[in-house]
Amino acid sequence: MEQYWSGSAVNRNKGMVENLQQYGVIKSRKVAEIMETIDRGLFVPNGAQPYVDSPMLIGYNATISAPHMHATCLQLLEENLQPGMRALDVGSGTGYLTACFALMVGPQGRTVGVEHIPELVSFSIQNIEKSAAAPQLKDGSLSVYVTDGRQGWPESAPYDAIHVGAAAPEIPQALIDQLKPGGRMVIPVGNIFQDLKVVDKNSDGAISIRTETSVRYVPLTSKEAQLQG
């Protein structure tokens, strides 16, 4: 829930990444490279300050997370986003993290974004088409679908990495079921008070869960409830 910098001190994508490295949020060269390659400025509404460390409203009572949260999730999932692996981004919003995942797993992998607001799916596809992940959208290794994210996307399961961009009151069983043995899910859990949970599925299918940090996300809910706010 912290904010590492504010205002217009950073006005370019590379500066944002350098700040995240300086504050110790980005720890690996790979995550830095991915966040440098996928320009966050392509994934925010017109007029927004894309490189400020703050979540932003994107319409439909949804937000794009702050850069430090995107970096945190990429770091937590890095080992499960190796070339050829499968990734699911639940509540994919404007498509930013979905595009990052696609570059991580590469065209030999599979990346799926799911979002229940059709207008955001259209917006995210337009954004991805302008980004370095565009070739994977074209070759079909990256797809974004309109669906209830609480149900995941079983057609492409199991996933090595699952990211959930909204807070669930409890971890949806459908997402646990779609996690591959050896896979990892990062999901905010809670109502008023929320924690970012790291869910690991062991090779024998056993689940272990730990808390990474306190967070504040919009709720993972139905399309109707979200639009009503």
From TrEMBL:
Entries under SUPFAM superfamilies matching the protein: S-adenosyl-L-methionine-dependent methyltransferases (SSF53335)
GO cellular component, one term: cytoplasm
Keyword tags: Methyltransferase, S-adenosyl-L-methionine, Transferase
Organism in which the protein naturally occurs: Lotus japonicus (Lotus corniculatus var. japonicus)
Entries under Pfam families matching the protein: PCMT
Family designation: Belongs to the methyltransferase superfamily. L-isoaspartyl/D-aspartyl protein methyltransferase family.
InterPro entries found in the cross-reference section: PCMT, SAM-dependent_MTases_sf
Gene Ontology molecular function: any one: protein-L-isoaspartate (D-aspartate) O-methyltransferase activity
Reaction catalysis annotation: [protein]-L-isoaspartate + S-adenosyl-L-methionine = [protein]-L-isoaspartate alpha-methyl ester + S-adenosyl-L-homocysteine
Taxon lineage: Eukaryota, Viridiplantae, Streptophyta, Embryophyta, Tracheophyta
EC class name: transferase
Keyword match Transferase: yes
Catalytic activity, EC: 2.1.1.77
Protein's recorded name: protein-L-isoaspartate(D-aspartate) O-methyltransferase
